[in-house]
UniProtKB/TrEMBL annotation, chains A, B:
Residues 1-133 form the HTH marR-type domain. Keywords: DNA-binding, Transcription, Transcription regulation. It comes from Gracilibacillus ureilyticus. InterPro entries: HTH_MarR-typ, Tscrpt_reg_MarR-type_CS, WH-like_DNA-bd_sf, WH_DNA-bd_sf. It comes from the Bacteria. One of its GO terms (molecular function) is DNA binding. It holds the Pfam family MarR. This is Transcriptional regulator, MarR family.
Length: 150, 150
DNA sequence: CGATTTTTGTTGTATTTGCAACAAAATGCA
DNA sequence: TGCATTTTGTTGCAAATACAACAAAAATCG
């Protein structure tokens, strides 16, 4: 069987590595760009959902967000109806770096798809979305402590 | 532009997370499975190449390998002609868990491609390989301290 | 309503990860 | 050949990551 996952792993690590190096310029440490884009695109999101979205452990997200707050990129607001949750919003500072993150990501996307026709790029996107749908379920299953059989 | 990279990042983190949880059963800590498969498939490889292959920092690979050696999964051997390099080989113990890692990876691949036709799976593999080729260059460029322009 | 379960968030601890800086062997080149 | 550069490997730090265990609010359900 063709090892799709190995390719995906290599690509992901390479790109994450590049992004982390490039975002140091904006005082973002490893992985923080992931949270900022999601928070800007989903203002009011709670950290539990953010972790699910990014596919990272809940506690990792909690600490990353705490640090982003400490550095003034985002802020947490209490919810009126639900005392348990804390909604997360970007600050002006957070909003202001969003375009730079997008620009970098766009550039990487562009480089990644060099030599691709429009159709090929769309096909890839479509297939990847389906893979993610499949994997989403597996991730939640295993993350919740269940054991896969194979 | 469709954000291929975000999809790839999510898929990769989810899968890595699953693998790490599942391989604890074999006393492998985070990421170690990556090295073992490559070493079994390329016995005699040096750690510099391993890092390149996996797309991880040189020092990260160095430490992961040191730990694998310490736990008896692999061994380093000096080269006769080149005093600088250390060739890495799996031990019997290392070889013996390779099939389990493969089996888990195969299962994840299978789950990831659920609902895919043979052709779709092949197309995806083909497109991903091209993406990786593109990204490989970028990674080396940035990792070596160069600055991308965009 | 009340008890149980789920959701959401936190902290303690161990581990991996990666940058910087160094060293030594190998290679390239004038 | 001799000197500069590249390759390969290491260690010191600082930081992210994740598992375990806990707490409290909310939701479910008899």
């Amino acid at each position: 069987m063709s090892d799709i996952l190995r390719e995906i792993g290599m690509i992901a690590r390479a790109l994450d590595s590049i992004s982390n190096i490039e975002f140091k310029e904006y005082d973002l440490t490893k992985g923080q760009y992931l949270y900022i884009v999601r928070i800007c695109e989903h203002p009011g999101i709670i950290q539990e959902k953010l972790a699910e979205m990014i596919k990272v452990d809940r506690t990792t997200a909690a600490r990353a967000i705490k640090k982003l707050e400490l550095h003034g990129f985002i802020e947490k607001k209490a919810d009126e109806n639900n005392k348990k949750i804390k909604k997360i919003y970007p600050t002006v500072k957070g909003e202001s770096i969003y375009p730079f993150i997008k620009r970098e990501n766009d550039h990487s996307n562009h480089m990644a798809l060099k030599g691709f026709t429009e159709t090929e790029a769309e096909t890839l996107y479509y297939l990847l979305q389906r893979v993610r749908g499949n994997i989403d379920k597996e991730w939640e299953f295993v993350k919740k402590g269940n054991k896969r059989k194979y």
